[in-house]
Amino acid sequence: MWRNTMRFAAVLCRHLPPQMNPQNLTASLKKMILESAVKFSRPARTIAWSRALCSAPKDYGVPNPSWSAEMMSLYERYSAKGAESWERLPSYKRYLTYSAGGQCLSRLHKPTARLFTRNLEEEGAGFEYTVFANKAERRAVCLFQAGPLLEGPPGHVHGGAIATIIDSATGICATYLTGFVMTANLNINYRNPIPLGSVVLVECELDRTEGRKTFVSCRITSADGSKLHAEATALFVSVSVGTLIGF
Ligand SMILES: CCCCCCCC(=O)SCCNC(=O)CCNC(=O)[C@H](O)C(C)(C)COP(=O)(O)OP(=O)(O)OC[C@H]1O[C@@H](n2cnc3c(N)ncnc32)[C@H](O)[C@@H]1OP(=O)(O)O
């Protein structure tokens, strides 16, 4: 039993992404890994879980057939700028999976949970988005195509869905630039409704950091930049992985 436990823990640690190598893990995370290993250390389960943990997660930030010509054109424009300036960030269905660039931890922790913005399998129905980030300029841009299940006012996107994409885009920007964070404050001014099915740019910029606080501002405009849909400011507070997991 103990040998299986240690073998399972070793498999987990081997598949942690580089920035989460075992020397850098918090005590609470080590405890979680060991507890999970104990829980699943019966031989048959060990093999099944090891396999399940090691398959590649689906990246939702790549084009799919629901993307409009306008969404594709923007995607190609940012992709063409080159990874040295604008890096496309992969997008998975769990926050930790995205942040750590791996998959093991999110599958161990409440495995049936899903990121709110990636909770529909039907392509094009809800949030279709992809994020490019520019480290040197401390900016990120989210290309967002709003599906029909995000309706608020007839034919237009729900204000809560707009808040969600702003929270996500600014959160991804803050996480990319400063590490694990949680939203502490979000202020939004809605300027013009967003038509359902349209593609908009959610442009985020890191304004400043103060200790654990990261301030990000955001503008949502039409794809050609001619119409302002919303403006927002967000405050994120850095947290440990243990806090995110709930330890
Ligand atoms: C891939 C997808 C990315 C998605 C990103 C989406 C992120 C989310 O939606 S997270 C979910 C929504 N957010 C939450 O549930 C967070 C709930 N709040 C909390 O857990 C805590 O209040 C938390 C973590 C924000 C801060 O708590 P804690 O770690 O104890 O920090 P705390 O000491 O209170 O505050 C740290 C600093 O921030 C400031 N601060 C905290 N909250 C606020 C606030 N609402 N307004 C202004 N300042 C604040 C404090 O004054 C303090 O400032 P200073 O260092 O100058 O004294």
Automatic annotation (TrEMBL):
It holds the Pfam family 4HBT. It catalyses: (5Z,8Z,11Z,14Z)-eicosatetraenoyl-CoA + H2O = (5Z,8Z,11Z,14Z)-eicosatetraenoate + CoA + H(+); (9Z)-octadecenoyl-CoA + H2O = (9Z)-octadecenoate + CoA + H(+); octanoyl-CoA + H2O = octanoate + CoA + H(+); tetradecanoyl-CoA + H2O = tetradecanoate + CoA + H(+). It comes from the Eukaryota. Keywords: Apoptosis, Cell membrane, Cell projection, Cytoplasm, Fatty acid metabolism, Hydrolase, Lipid metabolism, Membrane, Mitochondrion, Mitochondrion inner membrane, Transit peptide. Its EC number is 3.1.2.2. SUPFAM superfamilies: Thioesterase/thiol ester dehydrase-isomerase (SSF54637). It is found in: Cell projection, Ruffle membrane; Cytoplasm; Mitochondrion inner membrane; Mitochondrion intermembrane space. InterPro entries: HotDog_dom_sf (IPR029069), THEM4/THEM5_acyl-CoA_thioest (IPR052365), Thioestr_dom (IPR006683). Residues 155-227 form the Thioesterase domain. It is an enzyme of class 3 (hydrolase). Its main location: membrane. The keyword tRNA-binding does not apply. CDD domains: PaaI_thioesterase. It is a peripheral membrane protein. Gene3D superfamilies: Hotdog Thioesterase. The keyword Nucleotide-binding does not apply. Belongs to the THEM4/THEM5 thioesterase family. This is Acyl-coenzyme A thioesterase THEM4. It comes from Huso huso (Beluga).
